[in-house]
Amino acid sequence: MPETCVAKSDDLKDGDRVIVRIGRDEVGVFRHNGSLRAYSNYCLHAGGPACEGLIIAKVEERILPDKTSDGLYFSKDENHFVCPWHGYEYDLKTGECVGNRKLKLRSYEVIERGGDIIVVS
Amino acid sequence: MDLISDRGNRITVEELNTSNLLKHAREQADRFGLDDILVVDVDSHHYEMEHLDEVLPFVENDVLKQLLMSNRAKGRGSLLPSETSFQDMGGRITRYPLRHSEKTGPGKHRDVQLGNRWMDALGVDYACLFPTQMLHVGLTTQPDLENNLCWAYNRWLTEKILPETDDRFFSMLCLPFNDPDASLRHVETFGGRKGVKGFCVTAIRTLPVHHNSYMKVYRAIEERGLALSFHSGTNSAEPLFKSLNRFATVHALGFPMYNILHMANWVTNALGERFPKLPVIWIEAGLAWIPFLMQRLDHEYMLRTSEYPGLRKPPSDYMRDMYYSSQPMEVTDMIQLESTFRMINAETQLLYASDYPHWDFDVPSSVLNLPFLSERAKHNILGGNAARLFDLKPRTAAQKKNLELHS
Prior knowledge:
The structure holds two protein chains of two kinds. Chain A is mainly beta. Chain A has strands at residues 3-8, 17-22, 25-32, 35-40, 55-63, 69-82, 89-91, 107-113, 116-120. In chain A, strand 5 (55-63) and strand 6 form a beta hairpin. Chain B is α/β, with parallel strands linked by helices. Classes of the chains: A mainly beta, B alpha/beta.
């Protein structure tokens, strides 16, 4: 499997991301909450740069036992990255489109070795 | 540049550069060979309120000019009724919060430079330029204010902006529709200016478009060989919508609702019979509302024909005579969409629109990727129909050849 060094470990701090060209794909590599993830940068909707936009927690609505709404909250454990063209949101842990989880960005294995961050394609 | 994320966290992103933001659109354009296909965008926008210092000096009435410029100088208040609007989805659509960070060079007006960037990225040859906040001008309770703002904007656009665009931008100018006499004066004054291809009723209003006072306006537009468009929009203050608690719902319902209202009055009162040579274009309401209204009006017409004395054919036939902009194209059910295309005679009546830079813009591939369209239909929808409607010439020999091949 081809390996591509996309960054030095020290250059990609937690919360950072880098966009790289790997073969015919463009890939967004994230370090978030200690984990490395890599996804295709082509949004499944219209082809926008899916990995280049805002990173933001999932918005949730809390429904109480009596079925009333307690309002809107940011999730404490699910984060999204958002395509800046139209707002398609993707789960940072899985690359799934959160509006329809059957849709999923192509994901890549990311390894950290010898001070390098490497995407396996 | 920083974007505000959840809980006040900030996310660092590059400053906005439209060409970079849309580089994937440019890749699509290259892949589809769009430079060899004439592409006309019948609905694009700029943010005219960013240039009020240039626009307001064109206000005619001295008292209103003083009011507006004084208000502007002190940086308070707003010129038009505004609504709670989250077009940028909390910064998720990054070009909104970052717009001011984009750099332009000396020379042409900033809006022209920005416009050319997105047009070149999308593969658009010509674009019809509409304002943004002025689309709400019909909500003002002051007809003289509406008249003066439309006048000032239309002068500024036709005298300062369009002349700098090398004819790649054109416009259908906003009418001060609360005042039919003023609307007629706008048509008479601006109808012959370069780059003016028609006039626009900003559709966020509930006036009866069939009222006798408007007939002289439609006649004047028709006599000049120009088009009339209805550009829809959102209005969370609309009484019917006061229970809607999300901008998404206001947006989903508002755009089609205003066009449905005006289309129903237009067709029912036989304006298509009275102005048979007037091209009428329905803009930015998507497409899903059209089959609904066709079926609904046809049903009523067959049962209550006496209430449609001016019609010589079913309402849907008049609707098929009119034009529709393609954006935002609802693509979640291809069978339904294909049926819609058949019902509106899309091959000759549908006009590609991007709506760029607004949040729900469509790229040209939204048309090119449709599996049920013929090559001929794709070429016509992307540009051929609009080229014939607005008398626009292909910009290259390859475009001319393609246009002749598929027309």
